[in-house]
């Protein structure tokens, strides 16, 4: 081979191999999209992904910074060069169409739609939470987009369904449409960018400081001059002021446990919160859904067991001053440790009225997850999407069931648990399609069924008026189903202007229907109820892969050809959450306080946040969208 031909051979070889390499690289994210390994991410990579989601899935995703949205200062001195770490990045995921009815029904549903807050890392050197949350956002919007039948480059819906399971894609899409989800992978952007715990802070005179610890910076159990010093805490505070969060997750690292309030140092020793029963149950189930951490040890969540240890922060973690956890849980109702208005001097101060709270804003279940013993485990311990939702999540040395995989799951569980729901899944052998179609309005009860659009949208079956027609349903957003049953009859016999499919009902409206069903004598009955059952949900034992279902047989013999029946499923859930804790409650004599507990255990509970048009309405019976049965 001559020199020149050798050179051209080498050139050809190099260009060929580099294009093969390029092809291989291009293939990685999408080529084999069934399987994905979670890897460590830089802030630039995270922000790129957030912006890309907002571009590709603009129907569902809003990307913003708290600097742009709330006028907060950049964390970097204006004299220094600006980078992604100077700004606090956030994503809002919501379905803008589902409740966009012109009638009042949609507005009411929007008013009650729950908000969920997810914080990936208040400490910048604790690196797994942000990775998990970026994937949570991605999974949610990919699933919603597929269910809405949108075509998005890079989103292979067949592969997604293959990899997650069709029912899980429908589940994720339901979460997107029925909640507003705030994903803040790196609230402490500055710290994450610099790979350090604290938010960087340089005094105006140029004197450098050791920075600000954002999780000591909230107005609970903290001196007024020592709270809201960081832009991280102000970012979270602004989000809480502007929304009504019922459920929140705050991810950290350096230990392994899942904890809940109280976590303030000045709460007396061995005292539990008024919501301790619900908090404890939820954290225990979350630990099981995170999956096994170790191959041996006890099944339960005790120290050194196979799963994350759970308990209240003061007991199994440690107390802090100015923690985000207690602030979000108690700032609206507990005033002994609540700081009266923060007066920080950093960043030219912060308006005092921003830390004066109404009765509704800070009653959030706020679960703290300490993900891993090392704050920044290698990519090889973060896991993959293989068997992401396939219980039992056994110990596998973090190869698939790694730290990011575990907390993609816990974050999704939090989103699910924020509000109970019921779905009728099956009539006889017919599996019914999910009623939630992202980017489509839920149909109203008086929708014109002669219109093809609505015909397609309802759950409809046609059957003869016979005995023993089997209906199956399941309950979500809750752990224990205390009571569940069906109520059915001709559409025209339900009380007018109440039974619909867009909103939950008031107890009086449900009671009115029950009265119709039970008061009339047999043979002349207008509505029918089935026997009351009890049981569980997918969260009752999260280490099982089956979602428990309920079923019963309908007697359709009282009906005639042409009758159009509505079948609703109702459920009462998690009533034990209002039980008095076994430990000593602090403050003494306080009853349950959180939205999420009162929402499902107290039918008289109403908590309004008028300035944003949101409220939490308590109820005992939650109701499904109806199944329509046409008698032929
Ligand atoms: Zn931390």
UniProtKB/TrEMBL annotation:
Classification via Pfam families: Peptidase_M14
The UniProt record lists the keyword Nucleus: no
InterPro entries: Peptidase_M14
GO molecular function: metallocarboxypeptidase activity; zinc ion binding
Signal peptide: 1-33
UniProtKB keywords: Signal
SUPFAM superfamilies listed in its UniProt record: Zn-dependent exopeptidases
Keyword match Signal: yes
Example GO biological process: proteolysis
GO cellular component, one term: extracellular space
Top-level division of the source organism's lineage: Eukaryota
Domain Peptidase M14: 42-348
Cofactor: Zn(2+)
PANTHER family reported in the protein's UniProt record: PEPTIDASE M14 CARBOXYPEPTIDASE A DOMAIN-CONTAINING PROTEIN, PROTEASE FAMILY M14 CARBOXYPEPTIDASE A,B
Similarity remark: Belongs to the peptidase M14 family.
Protein name as annotated: Zn-dependent exopeptidase
């Amino acid at each position: 081979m001559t020199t020149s031909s050798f050179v051209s051979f080498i050139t050809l070889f190099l260009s060929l191999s580099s294009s093969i390499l390029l092809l291989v690289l291009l293939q990685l994210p999408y080529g084999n999209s069934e399987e994905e390994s979670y890897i460590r991410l830089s802030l630039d990579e995270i922000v790129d992904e957030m912006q890309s989601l907002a571009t590709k899935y603009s129907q569902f995703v809003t990307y913003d910074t708290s600097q742009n949205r709330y006028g907060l200062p950049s964390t970097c001195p204006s004299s220094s060069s600006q980078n992604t770490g100077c700004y606090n990045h956030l994503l809002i995921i919501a379905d803008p169409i589902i409740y966009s009815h012109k009638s009042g029904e949609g507005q009411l549903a929007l008013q009650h739609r729950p908000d969920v807050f997810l914080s990936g890392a208040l400490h910048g050197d604790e690196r797994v939470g942000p990775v998990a949350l970026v994937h949570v956002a991605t999974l949610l919007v990919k699933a919603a987009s597929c269910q809405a039948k949108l075509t998005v480059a890079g989103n292979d819906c067949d592969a997604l369904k293959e990899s997650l399971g069709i029912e899980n894609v429908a589940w994720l899409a339901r979460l997107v449409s029925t909640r507003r989800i705030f994903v803040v992978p790196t609230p402490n952007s500055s710290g994450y960018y610099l790979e350090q715990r604290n938010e960087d802070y340089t005094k105006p005179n140029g004197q450098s400081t050791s920075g600000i610890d954002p999780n000591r910076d909230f107005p609970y159990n903290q001196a007024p001059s020592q709270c809201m010093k960081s832009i991280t805490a102000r970012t979270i505070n602004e989000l809480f002021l502007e929304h009504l969060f019922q459920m929140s997750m705050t991810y950290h690292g350096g230990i392994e446990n899942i904890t809940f309030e109280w976590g303030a140092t000045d709460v007396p020793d061995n005292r539990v919160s008024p919501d301790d029963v619900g908090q404890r149950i939820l954290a225990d189930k979350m630990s099981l859904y995170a999956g096994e951490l170790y191959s041996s040890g006890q099944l339960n969540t005790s120290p050194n067991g196979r799963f994350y240890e759970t308990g209240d922060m003061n007991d199994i973690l440690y107390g802090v001053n100015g923690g985000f956890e207690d602030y979000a849980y108690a700032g609206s109702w507990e005033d002994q440790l609540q700081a009266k208005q923060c007066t920080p001097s950093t960043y030219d101060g912060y308006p005092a009225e921003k830390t004066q709270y109404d009765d509704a804003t800070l009653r959030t279940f706020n679960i703290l997850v300490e993900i891993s013993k090392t704050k920044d485990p290698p990519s090889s311990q973060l896991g993959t999407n293989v068997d992401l939702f396939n219980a039992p999540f056994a110990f596998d040395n973090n190869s698939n069931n790694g730290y990011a995989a575990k907390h993609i799951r816990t974050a999704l569980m939090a989103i699910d648990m924020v509000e109970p729901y019921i779905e009728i899944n099956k009539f006889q052998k017919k599996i019914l399609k999910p009623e939630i179609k992202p980017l489509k309005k839920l149909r109203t009860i008086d929708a014109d069924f002669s219109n093809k659009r609505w015909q397609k949208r309802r759950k409809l079956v046609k059957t003869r008026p016979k005995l023993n027609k089997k209906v199956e349903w399941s309950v979500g957003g809750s752990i224990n189903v205390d009571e569940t049953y069906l109520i059915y009859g001709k559409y025209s016999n339900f009380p007018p202007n109440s039974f619909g499919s867009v909103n939950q009902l008031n107890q009086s409206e449900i009671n009115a229907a029950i009265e119709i069903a039970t008061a009339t004598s047999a043979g002349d009955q207008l509505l029918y109820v089935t026997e009351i059952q009890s049981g569980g949900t997918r969260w009752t034992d999260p280490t099982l892969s089956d979602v428990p279902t309920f079923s019963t047989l309908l007697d359709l013999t009282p009906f005639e050809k042409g009758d159009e029946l509505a079948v609703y499923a109702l459920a009462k859930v998690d009533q034990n959450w209002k039980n008095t804790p076994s430990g000593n409650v602090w403050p003494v004599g306080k009853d349950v306080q959180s939205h999420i507990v009162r929402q499902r255990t107290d039918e008289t509970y109403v908590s309004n946040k008028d300035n944003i048009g949101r409220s939490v309405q308590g109820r005992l019976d939650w109701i499904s969208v109806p199944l329509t049965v046409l008698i032929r």
